[in-house]
Amino acid sequence: MPKRLLIDMDGVLADTYLQFFRLEATVTGKQVLHNDIIGLAEGDAFPNYKKYIHNDGFFRDAPVIDDAVEVMEKLNKIYEIFIVSSAMEFPNSLREKYDWLQEHFPFLHWKQIILCGSKIPVQGDILIDDHFKNLDPFQGKTLLFTQPHNMGRDNGHYRVDNWREIEGVLL
Asked: 114 forms bridges with which residues in the sheet?
């Protein structure tokens, strides 16, 4: 039986930070720089964070993180993959996330998508996520996907900076 690989969506597959940078520049005219937000939670880095994530299209229009599609396609042939994404806090994101996954990852079956409130009950062998709140309680192997909010600490998780590194670790 293949190993179960759980993969977060926002900040791992979908480039939500690029969305925040774009919206901040468009809405406020302020150019937020990557180095200025290292170690800051998204809500602290982007004052309009809550407004942005509740806007229609925020999750639907996020760009795909480089190399995610190609590497995911390879992983999907070897692992039992589930996309596990928190969506209940932002109910309008349910449809947007599903549609986004169908567009960018058409090789994933709808049964491989878990949109939930908490990831804690979802278990597997490996979890790739960018948030410690999801990685810390996980019982299996963890890969911390680098994003500005988690830079400067790793909490004992194996850090990966991009999808090519994930490919090297898991394939």
From this structure: 84
CB atoms within 10 A of CB 44: 11
- CA atoms of 62 and 1, how far apart (whole Å): 34
**Catalytic site residue from 8, 15, 129, 130:** 8
| Catalytic site includes residue 10 | yes
Query: What pLDDT was estimated at residue 30?
Result: 87
pLDDT at 92: 82
Q: Listing from the earlier edge strand, what are the strands of the sheet with 126-129? A: 113-116, 80-86, 4-7, 126-129, 141-145, 158-160
pTM higher than 0.90 for the full model? yes
Residue 88 pLDDT more than 90?
Answer: no
pLDDT at 33: 87
Helix (H, G, I), strand (E, B) or coil at 132: helix
How high is the pLDDT of residue 99?
97
Q: Is 122 exposed, middle or buried (CB count within 10 Å of its CB: 0-12, 13-18, 19+)?
A: middle
Between residues 143 and 54, the one the model is more confident about? 143
Q: 156 near 34, Cβ under 8 Å?
A: no
For the chain, which domains are there? 4-14+64-170 (3.40.50.1000), 16-54 (no CATH)
